Amino acid sequence: MTGSRLVDGKGAVFLAVLAAAAVLVPVLNLTMPEGSPLHVPTYLVSLLGKYLAYALLAVSLDLVWGYCGILSLGHGAFFALGGYAMGMYLMRQIGPRGVYGNPVLPDFMVFLNYKELPWYWHGFDIFPFAAVMVLVLPGLLSFVFGWLAFRSRVTGVYLSIITQAMTFALMLAFFRNDMGLGGNNGLTDFKDVLGFSVQAQGTRVALFVLTALALALGYLVARAMTVSAFGKVLVAIRDAESRTRFLGYRTEHFKVVAFTVSAAMAGVAGALYVPQVGIINPSEFAPANSIEAVIWVAVGGRGTLVGAALGAVLVNYAKTMLTGVLPDAWLFALGALFVLVTLFLPRGIVGTLIERLGSRRAKARLPGPAPDALAPELAEEGRGS
Amino acid sequence: MRRWLALLLALCCAALAVPAAAQSPADAAYGRLASDSYGDIEAGIAALATTGDPRAGAVLRALADGRLLYRADDRALAIRDGAALADARTGAALASADGFKPVRVNNRVRRAIDAATGTLNLVAPDPATRRAAAEAVFKARDAAALPALDAAIARETDAGLRRTLQEARAAALLARPGTPEIDRLGAVDALRERGDGDAMALLRGLAADPAQSVRDAAARAIAGIETRLAIVANVQNAWYGISLGSVLLLAAIGLAITFGVMGIINMAHGEMVMLGAYTTFLVQEGFRRSAPDLFDWSLPIAIPLAFLAAGAVGVLIERLVIRHLYGRPLETLLATWGISLILQQAVRSVFGPTNREVGAPSYMSGAFDLFGLSITWGRLWIVVFAMAVFVGLNLILKATSFGLKTRAVTQNRRMAAAMGIRTPWVDAMTFGLGSGIAGIAGVALSQIDNVSPNLGQGYIIDSFLVVVFGGVGNLWGTLVAALSLGVANKFLEPYAGAVLGKILLLVFIILFIQKRPRGLFALKGRAVES
After folding, report:
1. What is the C-alpha separation between B272 and B285, in angstroms, rounded?
2. What is the pLDDT of residues A250-263, one digit of tens each?
3. Any bridge partners for residue B126, and if so which?
4. Cα angle vertex A29, ends A27, A32, to 5°?
5. Chain A 107-126, CB below 8 Å of chain B: which residues?
6. CA B110, CA B105: separation in Å to the nearest integer?
7. pTM surpassing 0.90?
8. Domain ranges, ordered by start, for chain A
9. Which fold is adopted by the domain B232-529?
């Protein structure tokens, strides 16, 4: 296949746009005067940063869904876990500046009469530890979950439903005050990150640039995985898992690796999201959030990585616009978008664009019309009977 | 009962026939009432209560209301009712009110009236009144009521009521200082027979009893009652579990068709339930406006309408969207999720975001007692309804030609088409059936949940878990899964709390799916791999 270069055409365009944004947005924000039409207000920088964090989540989801056929309805859980790890670090940074002025305990713990810090909060005052946890917590959960599920050959719909059950269970758990993670209020009122005020303009711009870098890095990691021999096996698993297994591949190992890498990536996205929006609470675990992330990927084009990122930014931009102008219309629009995309754009925006451009090379690289974990096996069954 | 009435009648006649000659106990009591002294009045009230005179109740009520008059010279008693005056002993109308003045009432007299009304009710003609009176005495542990209780026990013909009276007597005996040891032992026995929390509280009070034998008997009785109560609590929990399980069954059974049989990941299922609930609301609104007397009929009428409304929406969805997506189950998830958002927002736009009021018909409210279990009618009807829906759906799938075609199409679409079955029509009707069943579930759920645009969201995840846990494509699996999850939830709740119990169940299901990836009752054969 000719598509096995690390950075192909659409990837180059994507990275170029991302780089341009990472340079232009800070420059326009920091150098242009307030009133200038070219000025990018600071709130917009954070908003764009949020979109890019979502885009990273979408890329991570595309890695497992688009290339391995694992439709995870629980990726929001990994995103939120990364967010909570970051949120715990930010809470510890507040120190004695909280409302109750306790140097060790966050406000909500003082409020709930905690006498000392729960054991799992220790270490989160050290940034490198928290940063590792951002990767380890979602990674560990996804590894255990994936190892159990893939080894038992839970596939397709069943897998989707139990990933949904997982994020639902986590949501219920994090809503409990006994979890020691802020209950339904979550973690908020952050002050500093690495000694810089989270409210400061400079910090916000830096966070945006970091998010853009993380997205580029995440894209490259996912791309490197998918163009390698490893990625070819993933695609083979997606298209005909039993056949791949019969060819001698331990498909569950490939799936676990892809799933764990993807979850860690989602965790990073969550960690970058939290300081930019200033809060993390259990509603991030809501099953609806995970489904929405799936929609971003479907809209942009699954199995393209670039499309996933594009879909995340476009859908969220539309959400921001519509909820501002016509709050009632947003759900109609989102619902209609899901229906129309599945019916008329099964390959998503990027997939369809590539097809339209008419390049035979691109056509050969794209999966069939239904890159779906179940469809090939259905076809196999049809032939067999 | 009849004998008792005859006796009563005879007594009345006797009282009427010989008012003054032989002074009956009732007469003596009436005599003391017609007095100026509070002590006499109080004694008269107590005496009157034990006679069981049929007019005693009316006399005591009149006394309490200050409508009882007396004439000091001949000790006549009269009840004033508005302007009319009636003889208190006979009920015959009196012409003149000359010389009558009201019988005086103070707080002690009022208390005496209350106690007397209680004892009087012990011999009331209505068994329900007698039972309530006996229970009241039991709770009050009123030693003064002992003579009345003895009298009532002697007359009582209903075995169950006599037992209640004896329990009340036991409570009174234990409350009275100086009851002989043998009677106290008998009382302990009676209380053990009763075996509820009240009896246990009384028995606990015997821990300081002077007699060793009574203390031992009480301790044994308490242990016995505790075992019994534990059993009752477990049975009650099981009932709550079955009740929750049938709610889950109702919510999931439509999905067992659309998801289980057809393989469509129908995320709009919850919204079909919601549409059913809103149909109920509309039907009830109609009844409230035009025929409030027939309100009890609103649910039976809402059921077919909810089926039609949700079923029609289901057929529409199938024709417009889902038929393009067969063989791509994961994509049906996205499309139906979109549909669910649209339906939610549509309902929110039309009916508003707040809860709408759905009333309970008379037969759905109230509770009854069964061997110490408290069972609410609403829950009972929902259990019955869930089972009826389950049986009905099974019959449709197994015993009708439509069901046969449905099964044929889902098992082998091309073969079914080759046999001349119109598969698109069967698809649409099957999806409509599943959606219609969800709508019916909405009628039942409107009785126990808030009818709001988010109603369906609360059930969708549970429904999927029930269907997956039970085994896709198997209605019996759905039944077993729903009931076992419901019962497990209710038994976990006391130990783990509601939220943690739910989390534990979710984790259990996730692990269970690892062990049996196709659910409790997996389909066998080649279809398994699809």
Report:
1. 20
2. 999 999 999 999 99
3. none
4. 80
5. none
6. 7
7. no
8. 2-287
9. ABC transporter involved in vitamin B12 uptake, BtuC (1.10.3470)
